[in-house]
Amino acid sequence: MEDKNPKKKEKKIHHYYKKKDIKKDYKFWNTQLVPHFNEHLDIELGPLKSDFKKEDINQTPYELPDNMEWVDIDISKEEELEKIFNFLHENYLENVHYKEQYNKEFLRWQFSPIKNSKHKNILISIQMNKEIIGFFSGLPMKLSIYGKEITVYNISFLCIHIEYRKHKLAEIMFKEMFRRTYLEDVYQNIFVSRKLIPKPFSECTYYYRIFDVDALADHGIKKVDLKKYVIKDETTVKFRPMEKKDVKSVTKLLYENQKKYKIFSIFSEDEVEHWFMPIKNVIYSFVREDDNGNITDFASFYKIDAFICNHEENWSYVYFNIATSISSIELMENAMILAKQNGLDNYIVNSIMDYEKSCKKLNFFSNIEDDNSYGSLKYYFNNFVCPETLAKDMSMILI
């Protein structure tokens, strides 16, 4: 197994941001349990604070501006799912190049509780006159960080109504999520953002292939040899959709192949069943068996709707790929074909694990190098310190 000792001298992380991008002062984050830029810490791995007492944690929610209230979301109720879907559709992740949209089944998949989980999902909205003006989620997950196993809450889908983004609601929302996870006896949080705040422990970018070469120009890609970007119609090795009988084998395959990374997700069988069992138009998972029926390879991706230049596309984002009997490159080639066969328009890859190496071999475009449309994704911990970590040394997808 690879040596994960954080004291061992590590190759310095590649930052897409520059020193000039660091603000002189981060008024809010300076009050939080996060590592700061140019700060010398006595610890290299572990929590910034570990002596939490229940009586020291606020038992009531943080105060909101007048006429606003906290509302817990019950995603099992169709009307509440509908409200979240509409709110995110109108307000989430919009820029000049594209707009992403998560369908209702995708949101149900994301936010429904995991069977037999010790910790509950935390779904909160800020509402005014029964209308949502802010939403965010906290989903529990288990990580191995340089050999240390911890449970964290993944803070995601933080979204504020366009008309209320000057009210500093994001700061209140972060504090409220931290408070609620502390009450669940989970004192670490993880989140990603394109914004630079103190202090990212890792950074990645995205690579993509577009299946319809005639659509390259719509994505800002011009003057390329189109023949290099044509995707085959048939897989070169045989995969089949994952079935419930595969859960135990996939759980073992994931763990055995992830533990070589410095930071990786740990999945129980219940979590593998929840996150990877195929759901049409949401999550696609495929397995490859050897002659004895043993699962040797695994490919998965999830679907997001997107609007480019006012026309709709179906994007596939790589989730977890595990190759043992074929090369990582061959597996990714086949995964792209599987995505194309399922009606998706492109294949988008986070630069973690060995994905970046495969992408460069397979003529993927880079969101930074080729069109600068996406920028880098930065990873943050609340109340946890770990060494700066290269994306290729992580096996962790935070949706």
How would you characterize this protein structure?
With 399 residues, the chain is α+β, with helices and mostly antiparallel strands. 20% of the residues lie in helices and 27% in strands. It has two domains: 26-199 and 381-387, Aminopeptidase, CATH 3.40.630; 204-377, Aminopeptidase. It has seven helices and 17 strands. Helix 4 crosses helix 5.
Nearest-integer average pLDDT: 91
User: Oligomeric status of the shown chains?
Assistant: single chain
The CATH class label of the largest domain is Alpha Beta
Number of domains: 2
Gyration radius (Cα, Å) is: 21 Å
Order of helices and strands: EHEHEEEHEEEEHEHEEEHEHEEE
Approximate shape? globular
User: Low-confidence parts, pLDDT < 50 over ≥5 residues?
Assistant: none
Biggest pleated sheet: 9 strands, mixed
CATH superfamily of the largest domain: Gcn5-related N-acetyltransferase (GNAT)
Which architecture of the largest domain per CATH?
A: 3-Layer(aba) Sandwich
Identify the notable features of this structure and list them briefly:
9-stranded mixed β-sheet, 399 residues, 7 helices, Aminopeptidase
What does the secondary structure layout of this molecule look like, with pairings?
Layout: E1 69-72, H1 78-91, E2 98-101, H2 104-111, E3 122-128, E4 131-145, E5 148-160, H3 169-183, E6 189-193, E7 202-204, E8 206-210, E9 240-241, H4 247-258, E10 263-266, H5 269-276, E11 283-289, E12 295-308, E13 311-318, H6 328-341, E14 346-350, H7 355-361, E15 365-366, E16 377-382, E17 394-395
Parallel strand pairs: 5-6, 10-17, 13-14
Antiparallel strand pairs: 1-3, 2-12, 3-4, 4-5, 4-10, 6-16, 7-16, 8-14, 8-15, 9-11, 11-12, 12-13
Helix pairs in contact: 4-5
